[in-house]
Amino acid sequence: MIFIGIDSGTQSTKAVALDSESGEILVSAQESYELIGGLPSGHMEQHPQDWLTATKNVISRCVGDLGELSEKIKAIGVSGQQHGLVVLDENDEVIRPAKLWCDTSTIEQCQQFSDEFGGSSGLIKISGNNILPGYTVPKVLWLKQNEPESYSRVRSILLPHDYINFWLTGVKKMEYGDASGTGLLNIRKREWCEELVDFVGSEMQDMLPEVGSSLSIHGEVISEVQKDCGLPDGVVVSAGGGDNMMGAIGTGNVKSGVITASFGTSGTLYGVSDAPAVDDNGEVAAFCDSTDKWLPLVCTMNVTVVTEQVRDLFGLSLEDMESAVSSVDPGSGGLTFLPYLNGERTPNLPNGKGVIHGLTTNNMRPEYLIRSAMEGATMGLAYGMRKFNEMGVSPSEIRVTGGGSQSQSWRQISADVFNASVVPLATSEGASLGAAIQAMHCISESEDNNYESLCERFVKIDDAGRCDPKSENVSIYEELIDRQTRLTRDLNEADHI
Fold first, then answer.
1. Number of structural domains the chain divides into
2. What contacts 248, CB < 8 A, 6 or more positions away?
């Protein structure tokens, strides 16, 4: 049997076709698209139709490349960018472009929630999470307050992966994992938080879809999509999930002791928990996962976006960048790069700006700047690791995914910063692989096909790329993490970032 995993991301949609017998990814496909340009600062939007077109095309390419084997396709799983807002009218037509996870235009609305419910502590008490600009619910309130005509037409609220599932099946549902990233879900009870819904407006009750188990089948592919994509009869669609939730499955992060670090445009750090893992300070997101467990998670807004900007600034190839980073000792000659080019979520600095501190005539060179960018992005995630340790979530191994995970130098920096073994995976596309594994799980009737056994079979570690921490570097980075934290705090208090 063959299972298709789709990852609909911010920059592209990827698909893989996983063979359940061989455990191999037989074919893959990818299609890119753009953000909507020319929007005011803080506004990040995309046309949902772009996701559907890309999804149709990558499925069709996989089907075409599989040839006769495509008749073995049994199920599809969809991973999508978290937190985005898709609004539909009474005819299920998209009303306006989707506001994305990286949209920070909702600072005012977040403050309104905070004022109403007693700050972050009050919000965490009723739902388990603070409400941050990237989340879905402040976007809904923003729409109501800034585009009342559009809001009056809203009949359905969906997340990006839900919208793709709806296109595939005609069914509107939302699973626990992605739903927890809306800011609306009581993650302890795994149900909508009525107090928060009613604060937006009682009419919102009818806009939200049913929320339910991530283990369920979402529906069967409708005939129109089946024909357009060349799929066989009877293909079902799993519940799907957010990209981090699918990434957890795709990296084998389905039991305690494993932490996943994703080095993409943004950075995430997460580990599965058998019980709700709520951070009283709200710095660790208390999400549900897509296996009906929980997924404490730290997200930073700036990872490869920072290194790519510096790389482009100096016209470096990826190989040049790798060589430059490896030529510089830990600490980048005294440079500290606060990587807040897009604002920041952890720490919560939606209006934050990047800072390069410690420039001298000796270190104002490309190799020092690119290494300091890499270190700054990694140490931002290390702040989250410290929070995990305080909560009793300590890794025996960190599995890295995303574009940045392909750099050996970056993996070594990560091992030293996190003081833990860091290992890449055979595929860097953990989210699409996780979606394929979830699709396999949703039709499995065997007790042997639980998530742990499936991940042991299909998630392949690249042990040759493993990096272990070097004690002399660990101590250096412990001091540098403290320095980065102090600089961030002091500059923020002075309103300089």
1. 2
2. 254, 260, 270, 272, 289, 290, 291, 295, 434
Residue 269 in domain: yes
Q: What is the dihedral of CA 204, 210, 213, 219, to 10 degrees?
A: -140
Give CA torsion, residues 124, 377, 82, 451, to 10 deg.
-90
- The answer on 307 and 181 residing in a single domain is no
Q: What is the pLDDT of residues 425-445, one digit of tens each?
A: 987 778 999 999 999 999 986
* 132-163 burial code (b ≥16 CB/10 A, e <16): bbbbbbbbbbbbbeeeeeebeebebbbbbbbb
CATH number for position 55? 3.30.420.40
Residue 49 lies in a domain: yes
Task: Say whether both 404 and 344 belong to one domain.
Answer: yes
Q: Quote the domain boundaries for residue 143.
A: 2-244
- Is residue 243 part of the annotated active site? The answer reads yes
For residue 49, what pLDDT is reported? Answer: 98
State mean pLDDT over 238-249: 95
Among 19, 243, 279, 289, the active-site one is 243
User: For residue 373, what is the enclosing H or E element?
Assistant: helix 366-390
**Per the domain annotation, does 447 fall within a domain?**
no
- Same domain? 239 vs 256: no
Name the β-bridge partners of 95. none
In this structure, are residues 325 and 367 in contact, taking their beta carbons and an 8 Å threshold? Answer: yes
Number of Cβ within 10 Å of residue 205's Cβ equals 12
Token pair for 330:
């830990």
**Residue that is last in its domain, among 215, 244, 273:** 244
